[in-house]
Amino acid sequence: MNGLSRGINSTPPVLKNIIIINILLFLATEVLTKFGVNLTQYLALYYPGSEYFRPHQLITHMFMHAGWAHLFFNMFGLWMFGKILEQVWGSKRFMIYFFATGLGAAALHLLVNYFMISHAMGEYKAMLNTLSPETFDAFIRSNFSEYYGALNQELTDKWYSNPGSAQLAADAQGVAKLLMDRMINIPTVGASGAVFGVLLGFGMLFPNTEIMLLFPPIPMKAKYFVMGYGAIELYLGISQPGSNVAHFAHLGGMIFGFLLIKYWNKKTTTFY
């Protein structure tokens, strides 16, 4: 217990408060859900075209999480690397860095979503203008490949066998609209973007510090760890555009962290 107390007490103030807020909001979300209150709908980040979007979500989504594991790994990574950055930079600069990288992550994530949704919406409208089994099949394959196999079995194959069916055409139109609504209304939660920014900051300040990996359990210099993680996120973001993980948000946190540190390094006369 004394070791745990010392660990908590040695955590710098801004980092400690960020972790506490994340934990409290997660617990509040779990409790309020039982009473029919969906806190995620108010505080998660929605695409600006969604009816649920509110400007404050650009900040509040950083303090929301999808589950215990999501919360734990984000807070553990933030604590492990963030406490060192706050001790080196001071609390004010660390707080600015945390929110700047979190906002940068949200900005890149929303930009990527804009291109994805705009592309899908264009194909959706084109499909409606020439609705057929072929155009529906192409629309699903291009934009919702994760549902392609199930829809082939449940709807598309039947429609190919009976292309004149008004009911199957209506069903296909309804499915397409449902998928578009889902794409627009997917909420984004988590401090991951800012955590990746903190990881990048640690790698830039202490590039030759060795980090012990969990899988596989081998040591690796921080600079190589950061570069490897960034490469993985870029690959996954490109290869898995429909993933539930916001890979480009992670990259956004790293990119904005890099730019901010480079800017600060040029302004050596101003340090918070």
TrEMBL record:
<dbReference type="Pfam" id="PF01694">
    <property type="entry name" value="Rhomboid"/>
</dbReference>
<feature type="domain" description="Peptidase S54 rhomboid">
    <location>
        <begin position="56"/>
        <end position="113"/>
    </location>
</feature>
<feature type="domain" description="Peptidase S54 rhomboid">
    <location>
        <begin position="173"/>
        <end position="261"/>
    </location>
</feature>
<feature type="transmembrane region" description="Helical">
    <location>
        <begin position="245"/>
        <end position="264"/>
    </location>
</feature>
<protein>
    <submittedName>
        <fullName>Rhomboid family protein</fullName>
    </submittedName>
</protein>
<feature type="transmembrane region" description="Helical">
    <location>
        <begin position="58"/>
        <end position="82"/>
    </location>
</feature>
<keyword id="KW-0378">Hydrolase</keyword>
<comment type="similarity">
    <text>Belongs to the peptidase S54 family.</text>
</comment>
<dbReference type="InterPro" id="IPR050925">
    <property type="entry name" value="Rhomboid_protease_S54"/>
</dbReference>
<keyword id="KW-0472">Membrane</keyword>
<feature type="transmembrane region" description="Helical">
    <location>
        <begin position="18"/>
        <end position="37"/>
    </location>
</feature>
<keyword id="KW-1133">Transmembrane helix</keyword>
<dbReference type="GO" id="GO:0016020">
    <property type="term" value="C:membrane"/>
</dbReference>
<dbReference type="GO" id="GO:0004252">
    <property type="term" value="F:serine-type endopeptidase activity"/>
</dbReference>
<dbReference type="InterPro" id="IPR035952">
    <property type="entry name" value="Rhomboid-like_sf"/>
</dbReference>
<keyword id="KW-0812">Transmembrane</keyword>
<feature type="transmembrane region" description="Helical">
    <location>
        <begin position="186"/>
        <end position="206"/>
    </location>
</feature>
<dbReference type="InterPro" id="IPR022764">
    <property type="entry name" value="Peptidase_S54_rhomboid_dom"/>
</dbReference>
<feature type="transmembrane region" description="Helical">
    <location>
        <begin position="94"/>
        <end position="117"/>
    </location>
</feature>
